[in-house]
Amino acid sequence: MKTRVAFTASRKAMKGCLLATFVLTAALGLSFAQGTPTAAPKVLADGNGAKSKRFDNLHHVRYIEIFLAAPDAKTGKLVAACYNTSAASAAIPASKDTAPQKLVEGLDFAKIKNEFGLLGASLNGPKLWMLDWIEVQVGVTREFNGMKAPWIAQLNMGKNSSVSESTPYKPMTIARKSGAGWNKGTTALLLDDAEGNTWIMKGFQLGLKPQHTYEQFVAAGASNFKKLPRGWKFRIKTLDKDLIETPENGVATIMPDEFFNVYDKTGPGMSNYKP
Known about the structure:
Layout: H1 11-15, E1 19-20, E2 31-32, E3 51-55, E4 62-71, E5 78-84, H2 101-105, H3 109-116, E6 120-129, E7 133-138, E8 141-144, E9 147-156, E10 172-175, E11 179-182, E12 187-192, E13 198-205, H4 214-220, E14 233-238, E15 243-245, E16 251-256, E17 262-265
Antiparallel strand pairs: 2-6, 3-7, 4-5, 4-6, 5-9, 6-13, 7-11, 8-9, 9-10, 10-16, 11-15, 12-13, 12-14, 13-17, 16-17
């Protein structure tokens, strides 16, 4: 994931804590150790024995992802275990809210980091799912300030200790044995890059202090974007057939925009077609 991961809607927020806010949020967000743990934290094993589960009716479900970062024991490279609240139960609540505002505001990332012996602990979101369904490998469930969130993926962090440090419009990879789908008739928010690739928005960034609603963002369209790279364009499309994503070799290519909305790459190696 998974999904993000998500993960407010400004570049200034992206450079600060995720709680200052998709992926950020307020000064609750990030806390990092000064040195490398002597042993791999147990959370990096939370995906061992993960089992595939499918979650339907996710369109516009509110969620958060929590990323717990540490060096991989085998490679030494920085990775992050990803946990998603929308995968905590097979049944989506009637409210479509799996990450209540007060509980998210109360997250203590310094405490989380220290509890698990991490280099970094950070938040993606709150976000809204743009897809309709997802099938992911679900591992150990952890509880964060009363919110249950299972392990769903492992993100390659590069040189970043936090998802908030991700560079807009720069692709990254995430190990995620998954399937995801946007149904025929779903409104898809798309970015076309200068190389001819098309990216589909998977998670719409709300943050704790939203600067716009989803409806406002869609209404403004391409005028929202002030930092698109040369040759890129944004468009909105009602899908005329199901779009199914199955990342080749279990590795998905994802990317944030300037608002920390998250996109997945489409086309060969990622999805059944390019919308």
